[in-house]
Specification:
This protein has about 55 residues and is mainly alpha-helical. The protein is about 80% helix and about 0% strand.
Length: about 55
């Protein structure tokens, strides 16, 4: 279920340049807290990816 929720959020974020978490919650039917956890995970992953690429 978590992977499905992540894919839904990633799809929405990919289609829109800037979208507030509250709007993602409304559009997906996910709880605001769930959206926040997914977005935090994406942010952490993005930062970790940048750190890996800059250390090469």
């Amino acid at each position: 279920m978590r992977n499905q929720n992540e894919r839904v959020v990633i799809t929405l974020v990919g289609k829109m340049v800037r979208i507030p978490k509250t709007e993602i919650s409304k559009l997906t039917g996910l709880l605001a807290q769930t959206v926040s956890v997914i977005m935090l995970g994406l942010e952490i992953g993005r930062v970790a990816g940048k750190e890996k690429s800059s250390s090469r």
